[in-house]
């Protein structure tokens, strides 16, 4: 049904659910699976007493953790017989996911949800909500 699908990898807690869904959808098909992780490009230094190099170190550690998650996810899919490519992007997660999906003509996006509701979602935003509202292809949100 889907020839090209991307899986947005972010939180370790929900990654297994995302990958299980991916395996079920892509199993025994010639589906091209792309695992995507988006890292923040910068962190605003609103606190004058925090050294700038400290923030850069945090971003580097976050990027390193994201790359490790991508490799773990790729290994899990490969053990289930599914080949996947990995892509690491930088910037606003919703924006980057939507642009990548559009530019590569993805037919399905699988993404996790943190389960924010009400005021928290309004204040913090929800990547999965933005992606589901603005995507040109179907979006499967895993809780």
TrEMBL record:
Residues 1-142 form the UspA domain. InterPro entries: Rossmann-like_a/b/a_fold, Universal_stress_UspA, UspA. It comes from the Bacteria. SUPFAM superfamilies: Adenine nucleotide alpha hydrolases-like. It holds the Pfam family Usp. Belongs to the universal stress protein A family. This is Universal stress protein YxiE. It comes from Paenibacillus cineris.
